[in-house]
Give the backbone structure.
Amino acid sequence: MTTNTRDRILDALETLLLEKGMSQVTLENVAAAAGVSKGGLLYHFKSKDALLAGLVRRLSERATKQMDGAVQRGMTTAEWYLQTPNPDNATDAIELELYRSMLATMRTIDAKSGSEVDEVQQALTELLDAWSAGLDREVDDPVRADLIRLVGDGVYLRALLGLPPIDPTRYRDVVQRLLEN
């Protein structure tokens, strides 16, 4: 776990979301869990929607870091996008942080009031657009890039929801077909 105040606040937010749900996310509760004053929290995040958007932006940073590492190890962006997440078999801290951040971010979906949705949705849109841009740069066929994106999203969503994965042999065949040129 990181030690700077901004990350401590976001770690506390993640923990509240994962353990208690969106209904317990208040500026006061997050500040208390992070061990900072409400004023200290507001110094880093001007509002609850800015706090939630900060969580999404950190998710984006973590995903970019994980993807960059995978690409450095010889994996393509498409292969990274299609990998099956498994927090029990996370190979490094970055992978586990990404999974935790994604799950916590999904819990913010309960935030459906006023400006919260706008700023959080904007941050999510920026994240998904960045992932899409990477696939679009790598995959010549835009329809195939969209198929990779949709399959990857679905596999990740199944994992986040705790649903059983599809048959691994069949999924390897799906991935192989999607990655064929």
In short: The first helix runs from residue 5 to 20. Residues 48-179 form one domain. The chain has nine helices and no strands. The mean pLDDT is 85.
